[in-house]
Amino acid sequence: MVQVAIILISRYSAAITKGDSKEIDELEHLWVRAFKKAWKVNASLPDVTIWAGLEQGGLGTPKSRAIITSETISLTNQCMCLHDDLWQVTVQDMSQAIAHLGCSTIAEAQAELQWNGEAWQHYPSLFHRFLACTSRGMQREWTAIQNADTPILTDKLMSLMLLSKPATSNEADWREARMWLREMAGMGLHRIEFVMDGTTLILPTKLRSNISARNGRYGVMGLHRYGVTQD
Q1: Which of 19, 88, 125, 198 lies 20 to 30 angstroms, CA to CA, from 170?
Q2: Phi-psi domain of 61 (left: phi exceeds 0; alpha: psi -120 through 50; beta: other)
Q3: How many angstroms separate the CA atoms of 11 and 61, rounded?
Q4: Nearest CA to 91 among 74, 110, 106, 102?
Q5: Taking residues 127-148, what's their average pLDDT?
Q6: Distance of CA 196 to the CA centre of its chain
Q7: Which residue, 53, 33, 55, 54, is CA-closest to 44?
Q8: Are 101 and 127 in contact (CB under 8 A)?
């Protein structure tokens, strides 16, 4: 009864429930306690017994992250079943989520989320969560959205830098510079023309103050390698 109730209820709301890594870990800890109590086993029983597959002698219970990923993909697919108003809203919202990352395609957005090894977080929309979930171990091709009649960001902000760190670049420099661009894209500055004056990068006042509060040297050095200077 516990297994049926927990899994079914979780699947029902998994795609729209917000939760970061800490909250998901806390949820799974409660699940484990409930399962152990239902099976009347000692609390010291290793948690892996709950998650391990049946062939390994476990219960084969799916972890919450797997449920969230599965249900997020399923719900997004449902939104694209018919070429109707919901389909149009889905395409528009997915395009905005991609632009929010400074990218122009689903594949680019997935790759952008992969490089930093980002932990689970409170995503602003279903489609941000879809991109994050599918960036973990899979590359999702979605012809219906890629071929949709939506604006394409041919001058996307993240194209200012290579996705992979050049061999001659310092890791800290490259990461800091890339995070600057990510922050600007998240502020709505998706296009290069919004932030560049020739080869000079115009930093928003809010970002400038954030950089001043931490060591901004790395980002400056990282961008200099690409011929970009800071104002």
Answers
A1: 198
A2: beta
A3: 13
A4: 106
A5: 70
A6: 26
A7: 33
A8: no
* Residue 64 · residue 76 · CB < 8 Å: no
What is the pLDDT confidence band of residue 222, given thresholds at 50, 70 and 90? Answer: very low
Helix H or strand E encompassing 200: strand 200-201
Residue 96 phi/psi, 5-degree rounding, is: -65, -40
147: amino acid identity, one letter: N
Residues 144 and 120: beta-carbon distance below 8 Å: no
Quick count: other Cβ atoms within 10 Å of Cβ 171? 10
- Rounded Cα distance between 218 and 5, Å, is 50
* Residue 83, pLDDT score: 84
Q: How far apart are CA 191 and CA 185, in angstroms?
A: 8
User: Helix/strand/coil (H, E, C) string of 162-198?
Assistant: CCCCCCCCCHHHHHHHHHHHHHHHHCCCCEHHHHEEC
What span, in angstroms and rounded, lies between the C-alpha atoms of 97 and 107? 13
List phi, psi (to 5°) of 227.
75, 15
